[in-house]
Amino acid sequence: MNLEIIDHSASKRIQSIKVKEKELEKLIFPFNKHSIQSLEYKPFSRFSLAKSIDDVFDGNLSKTLNKILKDRNTGVAIIEPDIKNSKFDKDFLVKLSTGLAYLVGLPNFDLMTDKYYARFYVKHSDSSDSYLRKAYRNLDLHTDGTFVKEKTDWLLMTKMEETNVKGGESVLLHLDDWEHCEELSSDPVGKQNFVWSSPKSKNVGYKVEHPVFSKDGSGKPTISYIDQFPEPKNMEQGLFLQKLSDALEESKNKIIFPLTPGSTIFSNNYFWLHGRKPFKKNINLSRELLRIRGVFF
Fold first, then answer.
1. Domain for residue 233, yes or no?
2. Is 86 part of any domain?
3. Number of domains forming the structure of the chain
């Protein structure tokens, strides 16, 4: 198998997939067949793109990604392409990320951008209504898709580029490593329906209800939670959410590491939470991210 897969230096649960330049060069010709616009307008073209990636790896990449993401013992793959050559530009990264997503499932339509993916910047100044773009605030641990009707099985995040950046490390936490998982996932309040909404920038014109904690097919806990969007109905729910937030952020088992520009975090959204450390202040700070989230085939 022409894939290099190793345990990530930060955790054996995280699988690091190295993609060499010679393999990326084999993608240039099939990628040139698809413009970004054609990928946005013609969903079937994304499957063709994904197949061209899998062919480079003799069909092993799709099998590997599905195995990692669905295995409770792992659940996160970090794809690290060798993109030092300037011919691997941002369009190339959008296509690579698209292909990776379509090897495992179908992306949800992202209402924030009216596309199957979202691209956004984190900069020094920000006037948005979401913590996502607040550079100097800790982005607390959370899962995605808490405020939409669609299922969100997985999340893919690619760091497109960054300049003048210090800090802003990625943060991950596996539910099975969290010290308070048993206590809080078995609390009856966490199994109640909570109301979840979202700020105007998300372009979601409805609210949903679901519990914070559920169980998977094997009876192990899963979580759907983000700190900014629940609307507690009473004191009991409000205090539970505060206890949950404190217990997550105070965990000593959080995995904190820098992500190389061009790299992708691909994670299971049911038993992994993700966040980001604050950046060091710099008026010229800029980071661009690409996000795709969806369901398994």
1. no
2. yes
3. 1
CATH number, domain containing residue 112: 3.60.130.10
Hey, how many other C-beta atoms are within 10 angstroms of the C-beta on 64?
Answer: 18
Domain holding 136, by residue range, is: 4-176+250-296
The conformation of residue 47, written as its DSSP 8-state character, comes to H
Token duo for residue 166: 């210090």
Contacts of 242 (CB under 8 A, 6+ apart): none
Does 264 reside within a domain?
yes
Strand order in the sheet with 139-142: 139-142, 272-276, 170-174, 255-257
Residue type for position 104? V
- CA 186/CA 262 separation, integer angstroms: 39
Full-model pTM: 0.95
Q: What is the pLDDT of residues 232-278, one digit of tens each?
A: 999 999 999 999 999 999 999 999 999 999 999 999 999 999 999 99
- Report residue 223 as tokens: 């979580």
CB atoms within 10 A of CB 40: 17
CA 115 to chain centre: 16
Q: What does the alpha-carbon distance between residue 126 and residue 196 come to, in Å, rounded to a whole number?
A: 24
